[in-house]
Amino acid sequence: MVVSDIVARVLSHTDDDNAVSASNTEIxxxxxxxxxxxxxxxxxxxxxxxxxxxxxxxxxxxxxxxPDFICPLRMAINGLRVRPGTLADFDAxxxxxxxxxxxxxxxxxxxxxxYALDRQPASTTVAEFTYARSPAAMILSSTPEIPTQYHRSxxxxxxxxxxxxxxxxxxxxxxxxxxxxxxxxTELGNFVRARSRAAALDTLPFExxxxxxxxxxxxxxPKAKK
Length: 226
Fold this sequence. Notes:
The chain has 226 residues and is of the alpha+beta class. Helix content is 37%, strand content 19%.
């Protein structure tokens, strides 16, 4: 399924629901947003590459090197795993970790960009690196990067998203599509989580099944004044 097919499906939903019409530009933006959200919720898109760890440096950044970076999944040097940790772990093990030379044994992701190493290589060291990534922006002729069986989920998300400009009525009409999208992302996230555990990756997807959807329930309409 390419984006033009998804757009057609969204338009058919709009016709069925008598919703306010949406332009192709709005729908494509919503499809891109749906795929971006899918990649963040499920970590289903991965890149296996290398990263240069600067010599004598305690800190580095991910996004400056990988603009599509979401979170780290695996790091290794010469085939030996560099395990994830926290800054508290580093301090507990060695208060002078920021000035200790050697081959890193642990890394700590700090925020959405920074990372720290518990030891500093003497010179630039190439590490094998795997990270969850966001998808590239799509146009009409693009094919979504998430698994094929979930391409229809992007139509559901976009059908929900383009209705938000209608206000509460649009949100009510789009709820069925939003819930269907979340059901699909829960299923995909469960699959990626099982695969990630089997591969001993460092970060697992958010457990969407534990998310309380009732918090998104529409508020009761105000009572009419007498």
